[in-house]
Amino acid sequence: IFADTGKNATGASVVIRGGTVGCVVDVDGSFMLNADGDPELVVSFVGYKSLVVKASEIGNKPLKLEVKAVELDLESVSMEATKESDGAITLKLKDGSDAQPVFLLDGEVVDNIENIDPETIESISVYKDPDNPLVKEYNAINGLVQIITKDGADLLSPKQSKKVMDESGANDEGEVFYIVEDMPKFTGGLPALKTYIYSNLEYPENVKNKGIEGEAIVRFLVNEKGEVVNGEVLRSSNQEFDAPALRVVKEMPDWTPGMQRGKAVKVWYVISIKFNDEKK
User: Fold this and answer.
1) Disulfide engineering: 156 pairs with which of 135, 160, 191, 204, CB 3.0-4.6 Å?
2) Mean pLDDT, consecutive 10-residue segments, the chain of 280 residues?
3) Is residue 73 domain-resident?
């Protein structure tokens, strides 16, 4: 069940940890999964903390999924795309450190992404959430960059496919299970979100003129329609920052909502908004 509402966690994914065999939670909050021994099961749902539990513990008490507020770090958009003289693209970490992400090119792990013709790219996705299925699968502690080319779009390996289970969620024969979870997206990604916030943020004159700098930590909900609602200031270094930080969040354009198995879901976010001369 969802801890915040007490409702059944219908559509939540349940997989055997370290494997691809799994199922989904039914409308009545139950699920059925054939497993040998006493493996650990991972229960996940977009916007909630993943729950790990032993198979032998199932049925002893209701499993509760706790709400997870995703922290957005606007100060470290780590990937940098460089366009070469011939038009090819090279991706690398912006800070030049050795902590490289995992690169997946058409479903295969590669050492780096260099000199890719942008005309051949179907999509590029960057995953940093440690609870993301791909990040977990490839132990991508520094993030994961997935590049799908136009030629490879229809030739992905099973591990990279996103397969929606049939409506019954049946998995009696132990078929391979693919978690379909997508976090909400701000149009243009984190760089665009950062631009929006600091282009519209009002730095209070009475504190700016005194050289007072700081931040406000704001929590907000992206609902099933992609609307930004329920904004609140969790804490700030100066109460003068509260109103402008909350205003810029409440006036934020709609996002693309998060999805769980094809159904729009709500997701909480926490963001740090800086007030200093660079952001004025």
Assistant:
1) 160
2) 90 80 85 87 86 88 86 58 58 52 78 68 72 74 75 44 31 41 81 88 90 91 92 92 95 90 83 78
3) no
